Amino acid sequence: SYELTQPPSVSVSPGQTARITCSGDALPRKYAYWYQQKSGQAPVLVIYEDTKRPSGIPERFSGSSSGTMATLTISGAQVEDEADYYCYSTDSSGNLVVFGEGTKLTVL
Amino acid sequence: QLQLQESGSGLVKPSQTLSLTCAVSGGSISSDGYSWSWIRQPPGKGLEWIGYIYHSGNTYYNPSLTSRVTMSVDRSKNQFSLRLTSVTAADTAVYYCARVNLGCSGGRCYRYFDLWGRGTLVTVSS
After folding, report:
1. Which of A38, A106, B46, B48 has an alpha carbon 20 to 30 Å from B116's alpha carbon atom?
2. A1 — pLDDT class (breaks 50, 70, 90)
3. Four-residue CA torsion sign, A86, A91, A97, A98
4. For residues B112 and B116, what is the distance between their CA atoms, to the nearest angstrom?
5. So what's the pLDDT on residue A35?
6. Residue A54 pLDDT level (bands cut at 50, 70, 90)
7. CA A66, CA A87: separation in Å to the nearest integer?
8. How far is CA A26 from CA A93, B4, B94, in A?
9. Under an 8 A CB cutoff, do A99 and B49 touch?
């Protein structure tokens, strides 16, 4: 089986930069994606293809990937960014889909 | 604006079969470049991919669930469905349907979930 590893939690003060990491053996060959999930809501895509931001997502959200690690960066985190964040990718075959276990971001 | 809406039984008895349908509106389920998927989330836990289906009917399931899962598509009704047999309490979860964006870019091929339904809670209990 294939796994993506994230830290369980990250905490920052408002206005600080939050960084959430995701490690996986296939990330040098496969794109990473990031989903934001607020309490009681469906996930929302915030970063796709490692670094791209969908329309409507604030510019403070950015993504990067190097080697076996992808990183979601929230520059100047705001209270409304508090949520669970999940990284997502596929294994080397492209068929097996996997989510990371999620990172709870606290902004206070 | 394409939208997805899950429907089905919210309460299923242990050992019985869970059945859900996802209605697609604002677009065609037969559009090229997309497939369709189910994802679930047990209360307080993370996301688990269940499987995906192409409008042709071809499927690919999570290996951990493949013996119990069947997905189907009804192009005439613009919807797709999930059946999960022999359910237990561990199958209690919010079930989401989602559109899968398929393609290749920058020398890499990808599939990812770009649109989600709101989710429906299914509880397995006697």
Report:
1. A106
2. confident
3. negative
4. 11
5. 98
6. very high
7. 15
8. 9, 30, 28
9. yes
Q: What residues of A are in contact with residue B54 (Cβ under 8 Å)? A: none
Distance CA A23, CA B71 (A): 31
Residues of A in contact with B106 (CB under 8 A): 49
Taking the Cβ of residue A61 and every Cβ of chain B, the question of whether any pair is shorter than 8 Å is answered with no
The string of pLDDT tens digits covering residues B45-87 is 999 999 999 988 899 999 999 999 999 999 999 999 999 999 9
Q: Which residues of B touch A (CB under 8 A)?
A: 37, 46-49, 52, 60, 62-63, 96, 105-106, 108-114, 116-119
The mean per-residue pLDDT over the stretch A87-101 comes to 91
Strands B11-12 and B120-124: parallel
Q: Which of A90, A97, A99 to mutate to test the interface with B (most CBs of B within 10 A)?
A: A97
Q: What is the pLDDT of residue B110?
A: 85
User: Is the model's pLDDT at B106 over the cut of 90?
Assistant: no
**DSSP states along B22-55:** EEEESS-TT-TTEEEEEEEE-TTS--EEEEEE-T
Distance from the Cα of A106 to chain B's closest Cα (Å) equals 16
